[in-house]
């Protein structure tokens, strides 16, 4: 097939994937009452952006319905700052009434497009489109992107979906052939950390991929070749530290530790003692009550149904290992994903009210990479399972909002 025909085929499969996702999102929104052009009440990021425009890091007062850090009598947004940057731009056009729900939808679609391009590097276009659609649909990401009339565009969802987009872009760009892409990919993962700090776990893996690109005849020359690519990400990390220090006197504190639920209880945000109970919670299956399917609404449930890539991608990697087709990157991916899951399980609330297990959605970009990089096409039984789990996610996302 010529390059032109390949490009046209890729574009058509990508459009089919994004069209399916958009139609699904609009259908769910129609059932749950989501208005993508409305501004939701739980958008801390726009308030942060408006504070920046006034030259302040703290907000102008208390907003009891928001998760705000209280430090030395001032109120601060308790989440990392990067999602406030798009809201800062939008605030010049919309003021406080930014279309935060629309931004969540666009982050989700953008992440799916990046997943397609990442998977296309290893798979035929049809299989790449199927994997990208499955990653976006069969799990908690659909609910984060649409939600309902009250919670759409919420601070939690903006952070996770922008991190999804940026982390997927990081894997896509860092595995490409263009030097500019390697640099941009590391900037993307640095920005993703400013949405979801635990995504920093993927930095060593991405640096290893960069090392394989620039590897020279000595370690020192290889490291020296990497330095221009890490300069901008290091500057971003320094900016986070300076911002945190200016607010809380600690370069590693984004503010969550100063939420009243922690300062009043004395509990830590992350603790190993939370792992077992959280793990039991995410094993809980749905229940049939009076002939209707119902789900637990707090602390997650049935990760094998609501984040199926957490199961299916490692199975694929294990098959490669048994056939002796795995490599160092597979091993690093598996170890990083395991550590990421463990650290997510240490969270005291593990996401609170949610459909499925939304924290595990942070692992989706790496899971897509793990699935695709072996180059194996989707088998019929996998395609059937992907369709069934996507349908379950569609049904569950809608039903959840009427429990």
From TrEMBL:
Keywords: Membrane, Transmembrane, Transmembrane helix. The chain crosses the membrane at residues 87-110, 122-142, 154-174, 186-211, 223-243, 328-346, 383-402. It comes from Candidatus Avichristensenella intestinipullorum. This is Uncharacterized protein. The keyword Membrane applies.
